[in-house]
User: Fold these one by one.
Assistant:
Number 1:
Amino acid sequence: MTEQEPPALNEPTSWSPIDLTAVLNGTYKVQPPTYMHRTDGVALLYPGKVNGVHGESESGKSLLMHAVTAEELAAGRRVLFIDFESDQATVVTRILMLGATAEQISANLHYIRPECNPIALAQERQAWEQLMQTRYSLAVIDGVTEAFSVYGVGSMDNDEVSTWGRNVPRQIAQRTGAAVVLIDHVTKSAENRSRFAIGAQAKMSYLTGASYSVEVIAPIGVGMAGKLAIRIGKDRPGLVRPHGGEWRKSDRTQEVAVALIDSQDRTSIKYVLMPPRDFVDAGAPDKHAKLNEDILRAVHDSPEPLSFRALDAVVRGKQDAKRAAIQELINTGQLETYPGPRNSTLHRIPKQRDTQPELKAA
């Protein structure tokens, strides 16, 4: 009896040999982080990979990703938000307050609140497949512990957690191209806390991008101006760590950004993500406010709109700190820019804000 040849494959499978030509000839490049930008342009989230954000309850980790979602929508890109913790009214209201318009949300935000595993029913499976055929820049899964409950996954069972990681976040990343972000909790005990989220060790294995912990510098709340330290604990591609601060031996993390989240006017939320060095350069809140005030005063007092070079010449401080402060003032609507001669960018105070009383006396 002769042995039959296996049938020919019409398409490659996961068990087909991978074409290594691009790696061997040097043309293969690791895709760099693309989303969640700091004020200096450095991005923190890898597209097509699974990233993580974790922190204590009320640490602002969900609000942080609402802010990134608003940025993506404002840029005209599509976002998938899978919510196991909150509700559409809370999430959408926050995204509106963070600057996205109703039109942008309606056009490009796909908000999902799953109540079962998508393979449980034919209709659910069909909806899942439709999502997997859509291109997203960002896909947020808020509430990993609650997601495990919906999927029937034991949070301490490494096999079940690994299977969920392959079947859900990795599938979303691979099939939609999104930078997937898992929002998760940490243990209550700071002494027993590691650089990763609470639960099975297998959670580390399905993270293929970067993992960040969120620590509160100043609390966030309605009518408050909060600050969050963003620390990197895992960077599998290795392209974010070089932009981080000093290494902390206790948990092997580096501070990679500081998020300023200002809800003082109660009708909007202002968000700025600064490099750690810029936050240090800007100093304590008084010094940071002084730099912003100096920039506003220079623009206000100038008879002509100022370029960054002109601002740099008249405002004291380090360039990186001034760039971060200018970007914060733009994000909060206190400055606006427009194109100038010879490809320059000019700065001016919006007409509705152009009044001297906003500036303190020198």
Note: Residues 81 and 140 are 5 Å apart (CA to CA).
Number 2:
Amino acid sequence: MLPSVACLFLGSLSFYFLSLSLTSLPVGTAYAIWTSIGSVGSVLAGMIFFNEPRNLRLNLFIMCIIAGAIGIKMTSGH
């Protein structure tokens, strides 16, 4: 029961913060960054809480996602 409530609360909070970001960012930029945060967060949560494998290649690709999100923000003109 508790994980379901936490998931609904955190999902709603995530959508709220996405809607706040749309007041100052274009939809494409905000969505790209929002999905990047979700993707990286899911992988890191798996590593921390479920002892999923960690390796150099995975860390490199996580850094690529982060660099891409930063690059999108820097070139969006906002």
Note: Residues 47 and 63 are 15 Å apart (CA to CA).
